[in-house]
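To whoever picks this up:

The parser on our side crashed when reading a file containing two proteins. I've narrowed it down to the boundary between the first structure block and the second sequence. Both blocks are reproduced below exactly, byte for byte. First block:
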Amino acid sequence: MTDSKPLEHPEGWDKKMHYSTLGWCWCGQSCPCCRALVGDTLGACEICLRKKQEENVSRYYQKQFERFMKNIESQNIKEAFVPKEPDPEPEEETMYTRIKNRRRG
């Protein structure tokens, strides 16, 4: 008897169920951390890969993913994430700032 692979995800399936068998991960395939922990790459699910063959991935997202995976593979987790800079304090609203903002926008 041959072991046939399913062609479609089961009814009621959603993307978060990709790694639900791990027991601790409910992020789904969109989470690069979960994919890295199991050695998965973007689109490694055979069913999803078949569905996505005709769709092109944006070059921007492809570069972001490659940059992230390069740092994950070298065990450099801190470099994989870009720290968010705090927003600058807003200026006090005066006649000068209103004129300056009006010229910008």
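<<boundary where parser fails>>
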Amino acid sequence: MDQQEDASRRTFLRRALALGAIGAGGGTLLSACAGGESGEGSGTGESVGDPGESADGPGESTGGDGGGGVTCDTSGLTPEEKQQRQRFNYVAQSNKPNQYCNNCQFWKPDQVEGKCGGCQLFPGPVNPQGWCNSWVQGGGSS
């Protein structure tokens, strides 16, 4: 009976150690996903250096030119809604060739061509020349 108890105890300890290692490793991986490109910051995308950055978020000033001559007013968004946008590292002016919000699968065009549209992933107005880290080639205009 002692051998059976020892085997059971060993199995338990192995599983506990494995779960602990997975938990520690998983937490490290998740925290790495939240950081910016330089590994510092809060993962808001503000380290991209967009010229239209403001307190509202990168490239989302309420009066300035955020991207491509289009200004999207985000003053009506709640802090939670702005944080949701920042989780996707949204910027109003893309620095990636041929990757713009208006040719993304998640783009929701506005009534007026060339003005702000929307996104299926987060709330508020979206600049057609913007970009986020969930960009997927879609059938929109470019």
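After patching the parser it read the second block fine. Residues 18 and 24 are 10 Å apart (CA to CA). The longest helix spans residues 2-34.
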